[in-house]
């Protein structure tokens, strides 16, 4: 203890000596005093710099939460700094938290309502949140404040085009080229809109202007092809395609469309050359088939697709890819026989084999040949036995002909391959329900929900099952309300909620939802009968009878109970 006191005294004396010397030394710079005091004094005006630097360091390290925390402190230390607020918005966006970014940018706008940069951020966030009307208003304001914000014209015009509103999009692009005459994209979009409006002369001028500004562009030439087709100037079309192919010999779209043009013009040999070459290319270039899908099948141009694909088969007669796509095209044409013929030529080694097999099974089903569909799928399973989806469809077909034991067995075989397949569990739950195994059905649906908590079908099915049994009605209500979060306008789920309230004895509340369900699904016999039951409970026998009769008209089987209800109300048979 004494030794420590002595040591402390020496330190104090030394300190006093040093400070005394410094005090008497005129040449000592006053900054020394500040250097001693600085660590003791808390940050004041310099807080923002410290916190901002820390935020940047944390951002570089990828610690976005820490970066945001420091940046908030920096902004609090300098609440007038718009720059810091903008940096905070950027961090929220980097963190993909659009809601917080929106709140932060709104604070900037409150202080600086005409800050163009902040408004651009605001508009983009609103657009990202799909608040499109708000985004459009903001973009309009940005253009009014700063017409040189070039990118905003494209954002605003794009929103109008996405909403299929070319009338409002057109002046936006016209403003763009007014302020930026060299914007080839602006002229291009004006041309597209004018073409859509049928103003071919002005549209052509805009496309020509686009090409004048950017001569190597190909897309305006495709638009000119479209224009010349509509304007009856088809003689100009081949030269455009040839120009494109001279610039880009592998351009699939140009070759495909030129081939189809030749076919329509009766130039079969020219068409065949192009299609055959595309068929050969499809063996190694996946883009060829993708282009057929985009140009023809996505737009439901099935006749054109068949012509192109038949020509391609001459270059690749054994192509499973081409046969599969042609099967889809013939299905679109409602030619089931030709569709099946092409699907059956898809080889087991093809990535499309499983889909082709399922298509064939459904084609059998559409023809009422369920047994053939089952036999076919069993043959496929002998070739590819590791595909759980095959067992899902096989089980569904057995279910359709009410062979529930075989259906259950098929689904369970699928679950042996994929034990976490929610679709298989759902189907198993339905099969259990139809075969009278209610408890097993409930457990299957619980499994689906554990695997996919947002599975609206399983939530509804389990809730409705509880309602039918009259059990766990509070839980049933909770499950069905959860299902409605994901499908708010689903008539069947709405009916389920109404039925839960019916079972709870809340008949007026039940009516509200059952009436809505009938509006959403007007011809479902079960929903109509439910509504009739609810009207009967509130002593509106006339309405009850009306909905019972409507239900009977739409019911194909199990009519006995419904006929009994009608008879009790009328004293006569259902024909009245």
Outline of the structure:
This protein has 576 residues and is mostly helical. It has helices spanning 2-23, 31-37, 47-61, 64-77, 82-94, 98-111, 116-128, 132-145, 150-162, 166-179, 184-196, 200-213, 219-231, 237-247, 252-264, 268-282, 286-297, 302-313, 320-332, 336-343, 353-366, 370-383, 388-400, 404-417, 422-434, 438-451, 456-469, 473-486, 491-503, 507-520, 525-537, 541-554, 560-570. The longest helix has 22 residues, at 2-23.
- Mean pLDDT equals 89
Number of strands: 0
Beta-strand content estimate: under 5%
Radius of gyration: 36 Å
Distance between the termini: 112 Å
Q: Specify the overall morphology.
A: globular
CATH overall fold name of the domain at 347-452: Serine Threonine Protein Phosphatase 5, Tetratricopeptide repeat
CATH homologous superfamily (4th level) name of the domain at 347-452: Tetratricopeptide repeat domain
- Helix and strand composition category: mainly alpha
Model regions low in confidence, pLDDT < 50 over at least 5 residues: 1-45
Keywords:
576 residues; mainly alpha; Serine Threonine Protein Phosphatase 5, Tetratricopeptide repeat; 76% helix; globular
Write the layout of secondary structure elements.
Blueprint: H1 2-23, H2 31-37, H3 47-61, H4 64-77, H5 82-94, H6 98-111, H7 116-128, H8 132-145, H9 150-162, H10 166-179, H11 184-196, H12 200-213, H13 219-231, H14 237-247, H15 252-264, H16 268-282, H17 286-297, H18 302-313, H19 320-332, H20 336-343, H21 353-366, H22 370-383, H23 388-400, H24 404-417, H25 422-434, H26 438-451, H27 456-469, H28 473-486, H29 491-503, H30 507-520, H31 525-537, H32 541-554, H33 560-570
Helix pairs in contact: 3-4, 4-5, 5-6, 6-7, 7-8, 8-9, 9-10, 10-11, 11-12, 12-13, 13-14, 14-15, 15-16, 16-17, 16-18, 17-18, 17-19, 18-19, 19-20, 20-21, 21-22, 22-23, 23-24, 23-25, 24-25, 25-26, 26-27, 27-28, 27-29, 28-29, 29-30, 30-31, 31-32, 32-33
């Amino acid at each position: 203890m004494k030794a420590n006191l002595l040591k402390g005294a020496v330190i104090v004396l030394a300190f006093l000596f040093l400070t005394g010397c410094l005090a008497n030394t005129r040449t000592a710079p006053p900054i020394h005093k500040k250097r001693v005091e600085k660590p003791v004094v808390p940050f004041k005006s310099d807080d923002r710099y410290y916190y901002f630097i820390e935020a940047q360091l944390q951002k570089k390290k990828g610690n976005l939460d820490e970066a945001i925390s420091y940046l908030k402190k920096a902004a609090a230390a300098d609440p007038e700094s718009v720059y810091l607020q903008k940096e905070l918005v950027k961090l929220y966006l980097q963190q993909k938290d659009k809601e917080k970014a929106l709140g932060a940018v709104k604070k900037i706008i409150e202080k600086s309502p005409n800050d163009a940069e902040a408004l651009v951020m605001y508009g983009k966030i609103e657009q990202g949140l799909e608040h499109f009307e708000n985004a459009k208003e903001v973009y309009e304001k940005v253009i009014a404040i700063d017409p040189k914000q070039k990118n905003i014209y494209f954002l605003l015009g794009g929103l109008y085009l996405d909403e299929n509103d070319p009338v409002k999009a057109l002046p936006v692009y016209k403003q763009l080229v007014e302020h930026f005459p060299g914007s080839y994209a602006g002229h291009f979009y004006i041309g597209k809109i004018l073409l859509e409006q049928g103003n071919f002369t002005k549209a052509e001028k805009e496309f020509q202007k686009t090409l004048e500004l950017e001569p190597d562009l190909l897309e305006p030439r495709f638009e000119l092809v479209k224009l010349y087709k509509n304007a009856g100037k088809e003689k100009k079309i081949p030269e455009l395609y040839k120009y494109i192919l001279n610039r880009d010999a592998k351009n699939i779209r140009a070759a495909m469309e030129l081939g189809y043009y030749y076919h329509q013009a009766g130039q079969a040999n020219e068409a065949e050359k192009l299609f055959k070459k595309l068929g050969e290319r499809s063996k190694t270039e996946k883009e060829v088939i993708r282009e057929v899908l985009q140009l023809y099948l996505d737009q439901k141009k099935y006749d054109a697709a068949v012509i192109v694909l038949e020509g391609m088969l001459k270059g690749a007669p054994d192509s499973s890819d081409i046969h599969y796509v042609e099967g889809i095209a013939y299905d679109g044409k409602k030619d089931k026989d030709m569709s099946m013929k092409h699907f059956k030529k898809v080889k087991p080694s093809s990535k499309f084999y499983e889909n082709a097999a399922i298509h064939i099974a459904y084609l059998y089903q559409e023809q009422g040949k369920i047994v053939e569909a089952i036999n076919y799928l069993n043959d496929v399973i002998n070739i590819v036995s590791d595909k759980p989806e095959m067992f899902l469809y096989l089980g569904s077909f057995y279910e359709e002909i009410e062979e529930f034991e075989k259906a259950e067995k098929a689904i369970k075989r699928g679950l042996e391959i994929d034990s976490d397949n929610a679709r298989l569990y759902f189907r198993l739950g339905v099969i259990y329900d139809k075969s009278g195994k209610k408890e097993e059905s409930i457990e299957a649906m619980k499994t689906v929900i554990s695997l996919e908590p947002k599975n609206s079908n399983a939530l509804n099915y389990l809730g409705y099952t509880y309602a039918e049994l009259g059990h766990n009605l509070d839980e049933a209500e909770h499950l069905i309300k959860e299902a409605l979060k994901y499908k708010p306008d689903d008539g069947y789920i709405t009916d389920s909620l109404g039925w839960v309230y019916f079972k709870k004895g809340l008949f007026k509340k039940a009516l509200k939802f059952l009436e809505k369900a009938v509006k959403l699904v007007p011809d479902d016999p079960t929903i109509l009968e439910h509504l009739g039951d609810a009207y009967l409970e509130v002593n509106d026998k006339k309405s009850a009878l009306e909905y019972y009769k409507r239900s009977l008209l739409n019911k194909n089987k199990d009519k006995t109970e419904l006929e009994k209800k009608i008879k009790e109300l009328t004293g006569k048979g259902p024909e009245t």
